[in-house]
Amino acid sequence: MWFVSLLKNSVVTRLKNVSIWSALFAGLVVLLPSIMIIPLVVPYPSPVDQQEQFLGQKLALIGKDDVPACATCHGREGEGDFKIGIPRLAGLNPDYIKKQLEDFARNPIKTRVVLEPIARDYVKTPRTYGDLTVFTPGTRNNPVMNEVSRKLSQEDRHNLAIYFSKLSFIATPRAFDFETLERGEDLALRGKPEYGLPACVSCHGPKGEGFGAVFPPLAGQPLQYLIQQIDKWQTGKRDNDHLSLMKNVAVQLTDGDKVNVASYFSNQSYSINRE
Amino acid sequence: MVVIRLYMKLILARAGYFFCWSLLVMTQTVVAQGLGNDLDSLEVRPSLVSPQLSLPTQLTQVHVVSPGEYFAPPLVANIPDDKYGDMVRMGRDIFVNTAKYARRYTGNGLMCTSCHLQEGRKPHSGPLWAAYGMYPMYRHKIRTVVTFEERIQDCFLYSMNGIAPTLDSPEMKALVTYAQWLSKGAPVGVDLPGRGFPNVSRSQDLDPKRGKIVYETRCEICHGINGQGQKHNNGDGYMFPPLWGRHSYNKGAGMQRIKTLAQFIKGNMPLGASFSLTDQASLDVAMYIWLQDRPKNPKMSWVMDFFFPNMAH
Asked: Does the beta carbon of B264 lie under 8 angstroms from any beta carbon of chain A?
């Protein structure tokens, strides 16, 4: 067959012309990309991250000149305190921690109302009034944390956020009575459809494990802390949610709902950053 | 030959019209430029540009919920512990996690609960308890009377971009059982309050540019920068459903109608803040989403889809 011979000839001539340089070149072409892929495939902590983590750890465990150590209240492992209702920080999203610290540091009295047609900065919270949208910077009211976070610099907040997000945590499921858990589950998984109240899991993750920088975890947080936060939303002391999503939800919850749903999430088993 | 000559004549006539029209436009612009110097720059003239921001004169109509207004479906804790109850539970599993329990029929990242929110219970988001008693029903889209099962088949074919489950498949049986259980106690053949989606009315022309602003301010936080949704942390399924692209509903779906999508958005989005968007805003953002690319209608050929990508079904 004529085309078979043609193919054979071409292959043979090519093989004859192969020199050591072209072989080396071909080897480079194959090897270089595979070497370049290695850092993408194999994760390792970058030196910058380690530095931030170290500084954050120093600040969290020892504190600064007039800033007390975070560990005094939030625990040495960032695990919080279930009895007093101090939130756990271990394993939270770093951007979430940073935003909360910034909102704590903001003075709630001198809040400036900015009128903008487009939300360019999602740190600010849009409020909808028909065709006009008002963007207020988020605020969180807590006498201790307001004082502490005002003394922190932007780098400190970043370092702390990186440090706490890398910590591991395992939740201890708490026991509650059956009726409370059943009602809590109904509210957590289904909400109150007849009142337009969405389910908790539709934003906070199917097991309350949180989602991204916007939706914090509910599982693994103290029962009291969750109830207090909803109370603060209802009274306006906490007002730093995106698109006033949480405010719309919180104003519809009764005292019984708060206890039931917080009990349900305290009953969940949950772990993060653990093998 | 006669036909071709007639056709040529038509084209030439069109070309002549176009030529005359362009001459007219050119002369008009020349005249306008010439007259431009004579106009008083301080004279107050009405602007042709519609204002982007206005004062809060247009109040949002917020839907007032009174207890007992909507039908209350039975609680999940009260599902009976028998064979029937097992079927209801299976139907609920399929409804809530379609990608896992009806994997062989789905073709994208959407679930039943992506449109029928809160396990098919929420009024104004196509609740099952309001729909079940209305079937069999005449549907204008396909101009026949369809049963509840056939309607579910359409959901799988268009909204899930998958394969229609057969009428005797266990998935279909379970879904129908779940719907029947949810609507226990609801009257048959009555248009219950909260059925389907709320009404929207249009006051101006739709503008996808305004819709883009609405999308970026209100929807992007959950549905992602390119409307691609957001996946679960473990990479299994979608936490927030994709609005367009490969993993979204196809062009034959009901949500591809601007009006239906706007109705859904007005009644349900953003989550927890139903009825917070105005009719116009929801229509604008619906048009913005309608203009995006998504899988083709399975009942339409590739050629038609290429040349008429946004043709109504």
From this structure: no
Tell me how crowded residue B151 is: count the other CB atoms within 10 A of its CB.
15
Helix (H) or strand (E) holding B230: strand B230-231
Q: How many CB pairs under 8 A join A and B?
A: 99
Q: Do A91 and A272 contact (CB within 8 A), yes or no?
A: yes
Q: If you search the block for the tokens 């059982």, which residue do you land on?
A: B177
Residue A67 touches chain B, beta carbons under 8 Å = no
CA–CA separation, B151 and B168 (whole Å) = 14
Cα–Cα nearest to A90, from A65, A56, A66: A56
Q: What is the least distance, in Å, from the CA of B80 to any CA of chain A? A: 16
Residue of A119, A129, A193 with shortest CB distance to B118: A193
Which of B:76-95 have CB within 8 Å of A? 76-77
For chain B, helix (H) and strand (E) counts, in that order, are 12, 4
Distance CA A91, CA A74 (A): 13
DSSP 3-state of B121:
coil
- In a 13 Å sphere around the CA of A39, the CA atoms on its Cβ side amount to 5
Neighbours of B167 (CB within 10 A): 13
| Record: contact A245-B270, CB cut-off 8 A | yes
Say what the ipTM of the complex is: 0.74
Among chain A residues, CA nearest to B279: A130
Answer yes or no: do A128 and B276 touch at CB < 8 A: yes
**Chain A residue with minimum CA distance to B120:** A193
Cβ atoms B145, B136 nearer than 8 A: yes
- Nearest by CB to residue B58, choosing from A126, A130, A203, is A130
Say what the pTM is.
0.77
Q: Which residue of B has its CA nearest to A272?
A: B233
A211 touches B at CB < 8 Å: yes
Beta bridge partners of A137: A124
**Per-residue pLDDT tens digits for A169-202:** 999 999 999 999 999 999 999 999 888 899 999 9
pLDDT tens, per residue, chain B with 313 residues? 555 655 555 555 555 555 555 655 555 554 444 444 454 545 544 444 444 444 444 444 455 556 668 888 999 989 999 999 999 999 999 999 998 899 999 999 899 999 999 999 999 999 999 999 999 999 988 899 999 999 999 999 999 999 999 999 999 999 999 999 999 999 999 998 889 999 998 888 898 998 998 898 889 989 998 899 999 888 788 999 999 999 999 999 999 999 999 999 999 988 888 888 888 889 999 999 999 999 999 988 888 888 888 776 5
- Report whether the peptide linkage leading into residue B123 is cis, meaning its omega lies within 30 degrees of zero: no
